[in-house]
Amino acid sequence: MQTPAQTNLSSIYYWDNYQFVLRYIKKHYKDLLFEPEIDFLNQFDLLSKSAQCLYLRLCSRSTPWFLTHKINYPEIDLLPDALQELIDFRFLQRYSANTLLPELLQVLTKETCLEIAHQLFPDQKISKALAKPNLVDMLCNQPHLNLITGDDFVQPTNKGYFLFTTFLFFGSRHRDLTEFVVRDLGHRQFVDVSEEDLIPYFASRKEIEQKWQLSLWREWFWEIKEQPDSVTSIILSFEANMLPMISDLTDLVIPAFEKMLFQVGRHLERNLLLEHALNVYAYASSVNSLERRVRILAKLKRIDEAIYWSEFGLEYIENPAEIHFFQDFLAKQASKKHIKKVTSSLKDAELIEIDITWQGNVEQGVVDYFQKQGYYATFSENRIWKNILGLLTWDLLFKEKNSGYHHPFQYAPSHYGQLEFAALSQQEFASRLEILNSPDQALAFMQEVGECQQGKLNPLVDWYSLDWEFVGRSLQVINPDAMKSVLTYMWNHLATHAKGFPDLFIEKNGTYCFIEVKSPNDHLSAIQYFWHDYFRQIEIPFRLIRVQWK
Which of 36, 68, 373, 498 is 20 to 30 A from 22, alpha carbon to alpha carbon? Predict the structure, then answer.
């Protein structure tokens, strides 16, 4: 795939992009905003265009303070006037503290910090080799003795409201206005969704506040978790700030909350606080948290509880990796001689010898092994199945532009991978798969889609691995009903079964086979075992090969 040519952006592209964000917010969220938030929007609108541009420039920077004489943006007309306007409208504030703050010292050069240190400590010999962090520690919270004036530094105010607007637009604090630039420069291409078709991510103020509170807490957690002796603070803060939310969580926030519970639980586990981790996992309903819960209970020799939750998992979980975990755990408790299914499968694998020079690139070594025997051999893994499914169903994936898109930077509709997503298009999907009965027609259809949509992001299509020769060969030799069966299962389980396929594909004279390659010390995952077993059931030729070095 070729990278699109860069687009020439307007000199005030960031202002144009933020206007898009503001239009979206005023259209969808004005009735959900509080008075201070509305005041921010109204006051921003009253600023001149130059002042708005300067404010956006400063808010987009990570540093909190700016030296006024170093602020320089050529595209902003009458920059000094814009600076004063922002101060007058209280969108900027001058430095007014009487002590040196660490965040202000970070803006200064090491040489300037040395000059200040010499003036504050005239009797102390300060080496020029002293690192800047050490200088900052020395000067932090010292009286600045008029060495710095309010005219020297400014800081954006209301930045929290600015960040809140982008949060409303994206539904997340982890994305910002740079998404527009990455798209406009051609580094990422998205399926076109018109501004009129975008729908709000949030439906209530309650959803907004819960997601905002959770996002802030998770950011704090990631900042503090590696600090020494922070575990107690994390536990206390979790109990004070996160637990009270559980009884009243909105559906929108539950997935992010579950992810947070797992992250906190794992952090406590790694710090050997197993009982605390169990307490956290007990509030979670995700598959990952349930597995960790069983593992900890087994480690604590609380086997009856571990068995109970494993049986619970078997009844309510569909993810094959987790199903195999719970099955194997229960079987192990029933028989001490039990060998995991995946381990047993690997023990029975076919053995081949390849040169040890392929160590570290074992799959390529097996490709070479079969090519020397006259086979067409290539990497398959997830690329062939996902690419075929994504190209065949492109219009079905993206047809609901007026119901599943909240901003123009989504890879897929927001309900992609959920149970109702497949159900919405089940009849059309089944009809579309009938094209596989004619391999030539199917290939032509996919190539037309590929030419039309080239480079656009699709959760299933990997443009870099798309190999039309491979696609054509696979369509010719794989039984259409078998291929339909695999694609249908994927379509109905996109969240859990779009990976784990065999590594390689070989073909000679119309006879083909998929191959899973394992090096001497490699292991077979549960999802791989699932697909191997599924291929056998629908009579897709498959071989599990273990490599020996020679």
Answer: 68
Mean pLDDT of 378-399: 91
Q: What is the mean pLDDT of residues 131-143?
A: 85
Element (H, E) at 119: helix 110-120
Strand 504-508 relative to strand 92-94: parallel, antiparallel, unpaired?
Answer: unpaired
Write down the residue that tokens 């103020």 correspond to: 205
pTM score of the predicted model: 0.82
Q: Which of 59, 52, 61 shows the shortest CA–CA distance to 15? A: 52
pLDDT category, 118, cuts 50, 70, 90?
confident
Specify the DSSP class assigned to residue 356. Answer: G
Given a cut of 70, whether residue 12 has pLDDT beyond it is: yes
Q: Please report how many Cα atoms fall inside a 13 Å half-sphere around the Cα of residue 521, on the Cβ side.
A: 2
Tokens 């504030």 — which residue?
A: 93
Residue 264's SS3 state is: helix
- Which domains, from first to last, does the chain contain? 13-197 (no CATH), 205-341 (1.25.40), 346-549 (no CATH)
For 33-55, what is the mean pLDDT?
Answer: 97
Listed residue (198, 242, 158, 175) closest to 405, CA to CA: 198
Structure tokens at 418: 């959920």
Q: Which of 477, 481, 499 is nearest to 490 (CA)?
A: 499
Residues forming beta bridges with residue 513, ordered by sequence position: 506
